[in-house]
Design brief:
With 662 residues, the chain is mostly helical. The protein has a domain of 141 residues. The protein is built from 23 helices and 8 strands. The strands form 2 sheets. It has a 6-stranded mixed sheet with strand order 4-3-5-7-6-8. Helix 21 links the parallel strand 3 and strand 4. The termini are far apart.
Length: 662
Amino acid sequence: METTDIRKDRWFERLSDRQICILLYLFCFLMMTVMGSVLSISYILDETGTVANAAFLAGYNWGDWVTNTGGYFYKYGQAPFYAWIFKLVDNPYLIYKLMMIVNGAFVAWIPTIAYKVCRKHLGQQDKLKCALLSIILTFVPATILYSLFARADVMLIAFAWITLYVLLQAADQTERNKQILYSGLVGFVSVYMYMCHARGIVFVIAIGMVVVVWRFFVKEKRIWFSVYAVNVVIWLFVDKKLTRYFKSSIWGSGAKKNTVENMNYDKYQNLLTVDGIRTVVHNITGWLFGTFLGTFGLAVLGLVFSFMIVIFFIAKKHQITSKEAMISLYVFLSYAGTVAVGVLFSFGSNYKFVTGQDISRADRFLYSRYIAPTYSILIFVGLYYLFFRTDCFRWKTKLVTLLLGGGLIVYCRTWLGGYVNGVEYSWRNTIDAALFFDTVRYGNDANRFEGVSRALILAAIFAFVILLVCFLLNWFKIKYTKIILVMLAACFLVSLTVNYKKLRLSTDIRPMVTVGPAITAMYQLEEDTDISEEYGEVYVDPSITRKRMFQMAMPHFTVHVNRSMQAEEVENMFIVAKRYTLNDGWNGEDCYLLPDYDIEDGATVVLVKGEQLKKTLEEKGITVQPVPADYAQRTLDKRVLWFSKDMKLVFDYQKAAFSYGR
């Protein structure tokens, strides 16, 4: 028990728990808002698939786009929280920023709930200490950075905590009606995670196992198993119907990728072979290694602690409370489940990698995106038993964690270089691991890099040192725990800032420098003419390589790529192409430029193809000019990549859209 500086903390102790929770929520929400509001429109395919459900609820059908840019199916759970944005806003830049703000509203519950769990359910008295622990969780890089995409990751990350809190609340109720209410709510929130993403099934299973253990083995009856089970069954049935509805309405008939019916079960026939087992071992150790380096070892510490707490609870040692055991069992099962699902999902491609059949996507051996929803809870558990309940673990358990971390570094060092150096690697799936990596060119997050293993090993060693320092300070009974927590928060903040700049902001700026002029031009044209009501089709020419954001950037239009429409078929529609590009398929006298919407020196332009469309635009007062005879012979000056200059350029494109309107 800490006995120091109570008088110094008195100013904070005067605040009520409600006031502190509000401050924590606002702090995290404002941080997320600032980080999200400078982003424009991401180029990640997963985002367009996820947002397609929200756009559909708002009256837009992006079926042609999603089926011809991969055909991956994405679930619908977060769609209602985005749909209103499409109803109220036309500006694509503002749409994306508002989606990031919605994400921030969910993520901000994490420190708030962590504080309430610390105070209410774990009985901690020191308000400032609990608040500092909660602030650390606000800076966990994987938690924040994976939530700055319009994907379902943010819902899994936030609802991992929300579901835990509802579970703890259910275990607290003494009134019959509230017991029934919370028991049903536990079932709903766990299934809701599955409604957002198929990976949410892990949390449905984890919660189900916790409920079964507490009802039938611990013999605590406050959670009504019958009410919980009925709600799970009902909501899973509702999910089945809604999933079928969104699939058929947007993706159409036939099998879709990312679905059970599309699963290739033949790939598992090699699971128990020597190479199959080696693949699984590399995968699990790689993911543990990524967990270690991305959280300064604290998530792995939390994993060890949570496992031991369950053992202590069963053995009735150290007076482990029911709530402590419940949290530990939940997070341990959730982490183990997400790893298992991830290993099975990526087994086919990873097996081909290990056996040399297909050497690509080395990042799948270190994926942190799938297990990120458990990170902040594991860190919470690790810090709680390290600095709050210090009586539970002696030096042996901490030494085991250090040995595990060191073993992961040594083991992964033996195979990591041969797997990740010079092989296609996507940093955005290990978005918290680039602290020591130089991307060479800003925004270069997916490539065949050299030096990846060195950067990862350095990050892991740095994490090992920080964890060791925490243990030493704890070992020597350092008096000022709050200062240690502040220093840890600073370490996480530095990692978050560096990775945000390298792997989130930079990867947003770089493609927008190219496609921003066309996106802004199409928005301005639509604002002036409502042309999408008569001619609502846009063709993206193959000259543009980073095209995955275009449907989200032009929500009113049906956007085609080469898979859904050949260049020869383009007629009476808009064409987005690189400047000075004329495709042989649509080159001719009926191609026109829009001089009033052409951003000077922009890398992309909007062209008009077809006489009827040209005539309609002229009737609406739009100037249309024939493409000059020497257009295709001209060249665009080669640009030098310069982050600060390009960032200003992208902001200018956004400013042109924001300052434009009816």
